Amino acid sequence: MWIDYVRVDNEIADQLFKGEFENQQSNWIRDEVEHIALYRPLQADMPPAYKLYLELTEFNNLPCMAYVNRRLKYYATQLGGSQFKVDLAADFHVRYSIHVPWENKSTVMNYDHIKRFWIDSVGMTTFLAECYPFNNNESPVTRLECWQNTGDTQENTVSRQ
What is the 3-state secondary structure (H, E, C) of 109-160? Predict the structure, then answer.
């Protein structure tokens, strides 16, 4: 047997890009904007949530994230909100770089990559990182460094993952 082509489909992503979640009966993305992102409780003196949070995202999720983010911004303006306030907020974690070997982590854990794919392509206005994703001198990432605030001092905790 010879296999010269393998295709892996994600049924949810396929339905998303075909607009099946945005039909007359059930408009899932519009409902997220209206009932969560722009929702203000009656007589409450508080702003809407604006941001819709994702976690444990990976590189292959970026096209769907970009599509959903564009639709969120579109519906925000249709519903009287601001396209500059309503959007996705996702945590950037070492899991994002799981698709590359450890010695090549610096190819995706660097400023240029994050700016190009997270900020420019997906269109996020908020960048959340569980671990500092790149070194200040642009040297390759050789270990996962996490800074945590422990009162008056900051402590560097290093783990190998």
Answer: CCHHHHHHHHHHHCCCCCCEECCCCCCCCCCCCCCEEEEEEECCEEEEEEEC
